[in-house]
Amino acid sequence: MGRAKGTGTARRIDAFQQRHRWAGLPLAVVYKIFDDQALYLVALLTYYTFLSIFPVLLLFVSGLGAFLEGDPELQRRLLNSVLREFPVLGDQIQGRIHPFRSNGVALAVGVLGSLYGSLGAAQAAQYSLNKVWAVPRHQRHNPFLSRFKGMLFLMTVAGGLSVTLLLSLAASEAETFGTDLGSGLRSAITVVAVGVNAGLLLATYTFLTHHQVPLRHMWAESLGAACAWQGLQWGGSYYATHVLRGASATYGMFGIVLGLLGWIYLGALIFVVAAEVSVVRTHRLWPRTLLTPFTDRVWLSWADRKAYTSYATTETFKSFETVTVEFHQRPPPGPPPDDDPPRDTSPDAQPDSPPGTDGGDGAGGGDGAGGEHPEN
């Protein structure tokens, strides 16, 4: 394990968090978030999701108009059920979004333009997950394949959201006809909705990451993210009901835009943080040395070395490109974790494969001799 050079208090805290998983794992997740600059990934995802909302809604409304042309009342109920998924925005755009009315070339251009605009969120999600999982650049999909994969992803999400839409519609219709669902049935509907959202998140994490991710390493994070998303929806509904209601037109417009951006940002934060937790657990990137982000005068732990090696090899653009990482510091005392065996230092040895590589193209972290290193 790594050791911090500093005050006795810092050393004791460092030793404690490295011995206890419940303390070391969350700290490693926080360090991984800052190493990946994950908050910038969240901002990127927020921006493209914000731009994708209206094309997606436009496509949805146009689809309703095509398949339910003879039942405008059912169209209205379905649209209102979808808009409830956007608690900050939904009440403000009811009745203000309309399907395409053109035919022929104009209709095709409108649909294709909206479809391309809706791919922004899928592209941003792919980039963020590849960054978090340290997938080398040469292993990522080309621009055409990634966009095709994004369209398949949108179709998958649409299928999953249809289930939650039917649940929401059933609940609203029961209330319309004066049927009291009862707290037990409402709770059951919420549990089913959370389960569906967890399945969607699990599919998103595994499908959009250009790296094989075992499902068993993602289900817990997907379930936790789905629960957090449900709480975020409740919070957004409260904001729309108690903060925006009765506001002036000018303040209300700013409140809608800022509230929607904040709501999307929190959702993107949940999405990225859950992925970071999964990476740390899967690749055992803990325990980290306490003072690593603040000073070079520390002994890097095996998890530190593994993480820093993955950050370097992520930037390999070609499969025949080799990146070698060396740490001019003695390795930490004791053997490395079981899933990260000691390197063979013989001349014919192959370098280790960091997270996100296939074992043949990236270079592992060497323990090069020479250079200054902290004192004991």
UniProtKB/TrEMBL annotation:
<keyword id="KW-0472">Membrane</keyword>
<feature type="transmembrane region" description="Helical">
    <location>
        <begin position="38"/>
        <end position="68"/>
    </location>
</feature>
<feature type="transmembrane region" description="Helical">
    <location>
        <begin position="150"/>
        <end position="172"/>
    </location>
</feature>
<dbReference type="InterPro" id="IPR017039">
    <property type="entry name" value="Virul_fac_BrkB"/>
</dbReference>
<dbReference type="Pfam" id="PF03631">
    <property type="entry name" value="Virul_fac_BrkB"/>
</dbReference>
<feature type="compositionally biased region" description="Gly residues">
    <location>
        <begin position="357"/>
        <end position="369"/>
    </location>
</feature>
<dbReference type="GO" id="GO:0005886">
    <property type="term" value="C:plasma membrane"/>
</dbReference>
<feature type="region of interest" description="Disordered">
    <location>
        <begin position="326"/>
        <end position="376"/>
    </location>
</feature>
<protein>
    <submittedName>
        <fullName>YihY/virulence factor BrkB family protein</fullName>
    </submittedName>
</protein>
<keyword id="KW-1133">Transmembrane helix</keyword>
<feature type="transmembrane region" description="Helical">
    <location>
        <begin position="251"/>
        <end position="275"/>
    </location>
</feature>
<keyword id="KW-0812">Transmembrane</keyword>
<keyword id="KW-1003">Cell membrane</keyword>
<feature type="transmembrane region" description="Helical">
    <location>
        <begin position="184"/>
        <end position="208"/>
    </location>
</feature>
